[in-house]
Design goal:
Spore Coat Polysaccharide Biosynthesis Protein SpsA, Chain A, about 240 residues, 7 strands
C-alpha cells in the first residue's frame, strides 16, 4: 500500500522526561510506519539528570533501524534542542513535539492528511488547553501579544505540534536557544512564503515532571529574548 509520505523524521526534545519519553517514542514509531515509506525517530536529550538516557539507550537497542539519539552533555535550552533536532533530521518531512506527553504523537495522522502538494507546514492548534488556570491565563496573554508583535497568522502560537517540509526549513536559519525559537520559526517560515495548513489537536495535563518555563527567572529571560527578536525581525526586517 502506498504511504502518504515518502520519508519522515520525527523528533522529540527531551529534558528530564524519563517517565513519558519511552511511550512517546513507541507511539511515534507505530504512527510513522503507517504514514511513511522511510522514517526515523530522533530524541534530543538536552542534558537530562533523571533516567531519561537509560530509557533512550534501551529504545535505541530495541529499534536500531529507526531510533537515533542526540545527547547534549550540558543543557542548551529548548531552542538549542530544537536546532539539534532539525539538524539531525534527514527526511523529506520533519515532525516534532515535546517529550512531556502533553500532545499525542499518534495525532500526527491528522497533520499528514493536510500535507498535500504546495503545503510546507501543517501547524497544530490546541482544541482545549489542559493546564492549571494560571498557565492558561498567561498562555492566552502570551498568544495574543505575540500574534500582534510578530504579525503571526496562525491560530495558536504556543502549540509545539508541527509537521514541516525540510525544503522549507532549509530556506531559513534558526538562531535562538530559548523557547523564543518557536516565534522565530513561525515568523521566518511565514516571511519566506511558506504555505501553512492548521489542524486542531488534543492537549493533555502533564503527568510527569514539571514545566521549565513557569518561573520568574525564565519568564523574564523569555521577555528579553522576545523583544530582541522582535527588534531584529520586525523593526530591522532581517531574515
Amino acid at each position: 500500500m502506498t504511504k502518504a509520505l515518502k520519508s519522515l523524521s520525527i523528533f522529540f526534545p527531551c529534558y528530564n522526561d524519563g517517565g513519558t519519553i519511552g511511550s512517546l517514542v513507541v507511539a511515534a514509531l507505530e504512527t510513522a510506519a503507517k504514514v511513511a515509506e522511510d522514517y526515523e525517530v530522533i530524541v534530543v536529550d538536552d542534558g537530562s539528570s533523571d533516567m531519561s538516557r537509560d530509557v533512550l539507550r534501551d529504545l535505541a537497542d530495541r529499534y536500531p533501524a529507526h531510533v537515533r539519539l542526540v545527547f547534549h552533555e550540558k543543557n542548551r535550552g529548548y531552542g538549542g534542542a530544537l536546532r539539534s533536532g532539525f539538524a539531525a533530521a534527514t527526511k523529506e518531512w520533519i515532525f516534532y513535539t515535546d517529550g512531556d506527553a502533553q500532545y499525542d504523537p499518534r495525532e500526527l495522522l491528522l497533520l499528514v492528511e493536510k500535507a498535500g502538494p504546495g503545503v510546507d507546514i501543517v501547524q497544530g492548534y490546541k482544541i482545549k488547553r489542559h493546564d492549571p488556570l494560571h498557565r492558561i491565563v498567561i498562555g492566552r496573554l502570551y498568544h495574543w501579544a505575540m500574534k500582534i508583535l510578530f504579525n503571526l497568522k496562525i491560530r495558536d502560537v504556543d502549540c509545539d505540534f508541527r509537521l514541516i517540509r525540510k525544503s522549507a526549513l532549509d530556506k531559513i536559519q534558526l538562531t535562538q536557544d530559548s523557547g523564543v525559537i518557536c516565534l522565530e520559526l513561525v515568523r521566518k517560515l511565514q516571511t519566506s512564503g511558506a504555505c501553512f495548513e492548521e489542524v486542531g489537536v488534543s492537549h493533555y495535563f502533564r503527568t510527569y515532571g514539571r514545566s521549565q518555563f513557569f518561573n520568574f527567572r525564565r519568564i523574564f529571560a523569555v521577555g528579553v529574548g522576545v523583544m530582541r527578536l522582535w527588534w531584529k525581525l520586525v523593526i530591522l526586517g532581517r531574515r
